[in-house]
User: Fold Protein NDRG3 isoform X6 from Glossina fuscipes.
Amino acid sequence: MPQPVAGGYISLEGSRRPSNGQAIYQSTTEPTGPTSMLESMKRVLGQVVGSTTNAASHDTDDLLNNTNGRQAIIISSSIHFRERDKSGKTLNNKMPSAPSAHTAEEARLLGTMPVDPLDDIELRSVQLQFPNARGSIIDACDQRRVTTDKGDIHVAIQGDTSKPAILTYHDLGLNYATSFAGFFNFPLMRGLLENFCVYHVTAPGQEEGAPTLPEDYIYPTMDELANQLQFVLSHFGLKSIIGFGIGAGANILARFALAHPDKVGAMCLINCVSTQSGWIEWGYQSFNARFLRTKGMTQGVIDYLMWHHFGRNPEERNHDLVQVYKQHFERGVNPTNLAMLINSYIHRNDLNIARTPTGTPGTETSASTLKMPIMNITGALSPHVDDTVTFNGRLDPTNSTWMKISDCAMVLEEQPAKLAEAFRLFLQGEGYAVGVLQKLGRKFSTASQSNSSSHAEVTLQ
Assistant:
């Protein structure tokens, strides 16, 4: 039988005579495909190699003609031979992929269809997000200095002063801008600010670019820091406030609420500690305060502050956010002033509150615990979860709520949407701007559902 080569037949090896055998097959089954393919290969080879001499062209022609019935395929300026089956196809059925420098449309025009599924790009879930610009809250606030019995403190006012007042207090190593800028720039919170006025209180010497406090300055205790808020309320003529504090600031607001329960309408406290410092906390913070006074902001102090705010392994959750706070601790904090605040915090006394069952003889619930509505919040990854549980056990369950938000330690930065929604519902439940907050909540929930349920599918062509 004749041997198949490139879709045709030739005579048997012994049939070299010009009669019968070869003449029979020549007129009917002589392959014609390779001739045109060889011509195309010659043209491609000329384009790839470029201008060559006549001798090189003759060598190339001889090489292409002496292939013994196999097709020549040019890959990266080299010649490879692939055997073809009876149907004329190469044994390797893999299609050549499109050049990386061309788009899918150009690849189709060039005649090489891409086989990689990643070449077909689909853009999903296009939505608009507002950046949490930290500098914008400073520009939007009215900066004031309020005189107290323990020196002046810095207060930043954000919003219309004729609206109900929200008073914030920051945590260790931070100030009002670094604590609340990202949260109050969140879209839902910016809509909330149209109906409230926020008074950001900063502890003495903790504001941005604060000078070092004098050596003879006696830093206020935690109770004295809480008493300074009375001067703030008197200065701005506030009759009642809504407290919003985190960490050390939450402890200060709780002390102020115990001393002046008629001045506080409600409180949202994050990572609030109601007990005195333990031995481990006291030891670590004592060393931190000593290093801050003598050596400045050391790496050990930065590591402790990062653990205090973000818990363990924060880089695995949000590396960029961690770098922002590390840079702030290194460059934006006065070490001596921070050491004074830390020293006051670790020497705090217990709040001395307890949950008293209703009707217990000889006791009054209003005198033994906080009587205003309280939302007690912590992050699931925060190192202060147990402290908030203890604090929740000392509150009246009829007007307090404990909430643990998942996948975060620093709730304000890592889960602002969940915290903003919880805070909105908390204020709405207490009767603050009910109609406006309901409308704002419906608008925000509708936008969130539309962004999550309907994904915009866009195919680049």
Remarks:
- The chain has a mean pLDDT of 76.
